[in-house]
Amino acid sequence: MRFVFFANTPAHVHLYKHAVDRLERAGHDVLVMGRDYGCTVALLDRYELPYRLYGSCGTTKGSLFRNLPGHYARIVPAVRAFDPDVIFGVGAYAAHAGVVTGAPAVLVLDSEPTSLDHAVSRPFASAFLTPHTFGKDLGENHYQFHGFCETAYLHPDTFRPNPGIREPLGLEPDEEFVLLRFNAFGSHHDVGQSGFSPDQRRRLIETFADHAAVFVSDEGGTLDLDSLPAREFDVHPALLHDALSAARLVVTDTQTVCTEAALLGTPVVRSNSFVGDGDMGNFTELERQDLVVNTADFETVISTGVDVLLDESIGEAWRRRRNEYVGGLVDLTDVIVAVAQAGGGTAVAGLERWRGETERRRSDRSTPLTEEST
């Protein structure tokens, strides 16, 4: 069989990388349609995925719309020539590629606020696959899995953190560190949204630097660290999850990194204008499990972070809660591969029709996760 996967962002590379590998190993033909955005290409190269670029995109709000015609001009002939049996993606590119090829388009997504993408994709997608936490009805072809998009690559049966991550970071073997991740807020679904201000970013660095080494990952690249007690997170982006797992604390105004840190058992504080009434289901669920602190109040961000850095038992309890929770989540790669091999069919293990408010199930493991399994 022949499969196309769309990787528009670095997160999409991670979402599909294991499925691509497993399908190729099973003898199928796979093409990844990639976009030059952030570190997407670096990850595609690192994982040796069979990709073809359809264009580029910057981190400003207008960049995507300016490049859209050229993107489609390259996508359409490429997917037609490849003639896939099934197409996977997260939104409009994949859905519309399904139209021009006649192949079913399966969209795997987790963000309720991306209403524009939902509207232009919904008439053409054969199936939507979302986490059990997803709070928006996408129609009769909407299915859910008990997990998160990030469990395609951070499920404990799949991910093993590198215990030597401090060496490439330039740290001593037992040196504690904080990772700060700042969003550029340049996507179309970020219009009207915001995160930490420049002054707040500086205060975060100065406060946490009194207790640990501080690394900054700034998507927009606008923060000048020369006069601040922090280092740029400038190792290969494929090492990000190892760093998230080893960090004493993660503070972010982004979405994906927050979920990743929570699923790795690292104390994480998330603060942006999405927080509050109507927040995304992923984050309300993770907060309910005491794996994330969501707050719009900056002073709470500071005080929570300092508490974590001063009291080692907070992180230990966080990791125990994570181990109790993640064992019952599905390995999403298993679901994606099964759907692919079923020709886009959704009658596979791990999927059920979307039910809105899902009953919270306990772990199906006979024993909890241990530190050795993380």
Question: Can you put this structure into words, describing what you see?
Answer:
This is DUF354 domain-containing protein. The chain folds into 2 domains: 2-156 and 330-373, Glycogen Phosphorylase B (Rossmann fold, 3-Layer(aba) Sandwich); 166-326, Glycogen Phosphorylase B (Rossmann fold). The chain is α/β, with parallel strands linked by helices. The protein has helices spanning 10-25, 40-46, 61-82, 92-101, 115-121, 166-169, 198-208, 240-246, 256-264, 281-288, 298-310, 312-326, 332-341, and strands at 2-7, 29-36, 51-56, 86-89, 105-108, 127-131, 142-145, 177-182, 213-218, 231-232, 249-252, 268-270, 293-294, 352-353. Mean pLDDT is 91; it is low at 358-374. An 8-stranded mixed sheet has the order 3-2-1-4-5-6-7-14, with helices on both faces. Helices cover 37% and strands 17% of the residues. It has 13 helices and 14 strands. The two termini are 34 Å apart. Helix 1 packs across helix 13 (332-341).
